[in-house]
Amino acid sequence: MAPTVTDAAGQADASGSAAANGTNGAAASSRPNAQPDAGVQADASAQAGRSAQAASSGQAGATTRTVTELADGRELIYYDRGTPPTGRAVADLRPLDAAAPSSEVRQDPMTGAWVTVAAHRQARTYHPPADECPLCPSREGRLSEIPAGDYQVAVFENRFPSLAGDPGTHPVPQALDDPLHSRGPGVGRCEVVCFTADHEASFADLDEDRARLVLDAWTDRTAELSALPGVRQVYCFENRGTEIGVTLAHPHGQIYALPFVPPRTAKMIDQAARYRAATGRNLFDDLVAAERASAGQPSAERPEHPDGSRVVLAGEYWTAFVPFAARWPYEVHLFPNRRVPDFTGLNEDERAEFPRIYLDLLRRFDRLFSDENRKVRAPYIAAWHQAPNGHEDELALHLELFTVRRTADKLKYLAGTESGMEAFMNDVAPESAARRLREVGSTTPVAEAAPVTPTAPTTPATPAAPATKTTDEEPQR
Fold first, then answer.
1. How many CB atoms sit inside 10 A of residue 446's CB?
2. What torsion do the CA atoms of 36, 151, 142, 247 make, to the nearest 10 degrees?
């Protein structure tokens, strides 16, 4: 039996059950690919009671969550594999005033994009010394955002959020009384996800069980946040490295519950509709199938690349490839082979394979610029795209992972064309980037990698045929 996310009191939560079974309890009506589990009942105490006692979930290795509050009323959730320790619900003893963030969203009349204005975030924590890190566990004489003395994965509401408040009470304006100055309150939710208590680690240092726990947390939060009235899209992401602009070094990511559809997603919606009208097929199904079919085949268009495949990693259930029109020198997109709209749609086989594939991919990025003399951690953005509400039938869950480093000692800056015109100029051919990422593989040299069996386009309800296996901080900103 697959594990579920279970509240610390011992009863599986409707939204939490999504984390391992691909179900989405409360949010199932708005997320059509998430099939409700009739055997799971919602535990109201998880939403209102903020259970403090940790108890066995009744399943070996199951994911449990303990929901509590910080001193200023913000929600904090601990995620654990198996029975959580009794210290999970320790009180936050800091003398914090109630959080009162204030922001607004304004629409650019020339593009239609929404811009968030959140001036209160100027006061957020900025590059504290390691012994004052707010994401490390609390200890005697040093209280942090995590009151417990240790944790596995912790999620809490951002103290300096870009968006805050119930989006259902203040929807983003649709009727434009003043089309040149359309604005609304910056409602939504911003959460911080701490991947580990180890300050010196990174996601790539996690073992597979911990990576799976993070996936469970992402899924649980996606299910709960996407069900909130007024939330259009749930966005999970990680920023790593000072070169990216990260101000807290502790390994962590964030989750935004957005009250609007952001520009890149809006472009995907439009392009998917155009592709459907022109071909009668789904854009993402065909894209993944085409990349998988190219594995190991030469490129007639680029004879200087004897292996024209852009596939970096291929498993039975996931495929990672450099996109044909990559914007960044090293950019990889990771898709489940079967199209699903978001994390809640993944089945157990897909969840089980995910940690190996994702950790392998991140470790390859770290080896890109490292040699026998030094280890260089690649600064990157890991952006998880999930279908916004109302577009689950066409859009697909996928990761867009890229680094701003183009060589060991050079960064890719967004200059005049990119920043001014959104017209990217790439310094590395996508096929060369893919070959390099295969060469730095963890277990299988590129020359020995098994070819991938091509698969036909699929629909969300029909799993793709398995392919041949290969062996192979942006915190509060």
1. 16
2. -70
Question: What's the pLDDT score for residue 31?
Answer: 54
CB 188 within 8 Å of CB 258: yes
Catalytic, 252? Answer yes
Q: How many helices (H) and strands (E) does the chain have?
A: 8, 17
Rounded Cα–Cα distance for residues 25 and 44 (Å): 13
- Cα–chain-centroid distance for residue 135? 19
**The residue to which tokens 């807290």 are assigned:** 248
User: How far lies 57's CA from each of 8, 17, 60, 223, 476, in Å?
Assistant: 7, 12, 8, 20, 32
- C-alpha distances (whole Å) from 194 to each of 244, 254, 468 are 18, 9, 34
Q: Which two tokens stand for residue 467?
A: 């392919």
Closest residue by Cα to residue 201 from 250, 247, 150, 246 = 250
**d(C-alpha 28, C-alpha 129), whole Å:** 44
Nearest in space to 127 (alpha carbons), one of 30, 244, 36, 246: 246
Token pair recorded at residue 272: 């998917």
From the list 252, 385, 391, 398, the catalytic residue is: 252
Q: Which two tokens stand for residue 260?
A: 């609007």
Q: What SS3 state is found at 152? A: coil
Look-up: residue for tokens 């699929």?
A: 458
> By C-alpha distance, which of 290, 311, 289, 288 is closest to 446?
311
Residues 146-151, mean pLDDT to the nearest whole number? 95
Q: 3-class DSSP state for residue 97?
A: coil
Lowest model confidence (mean pLDDT) among 95-104, 105-114, 209-218, 376-385: 95-104
Amino acid at 189: R
In the structure encoding, which two tokens stand for residue 313, read together? 């990693």
Q: Dihedral through CA 454, CA 456, CA 459, CA 465, nearest 10?
A: -50
Most confident region among 181-185, 363-367, 421-425 by mean pLDDT? 363-367
Phi (first) and psi of residue 419, to 5 degrees: -75, -35
Q: What is the mean pLDDT of the chain?
A: 80
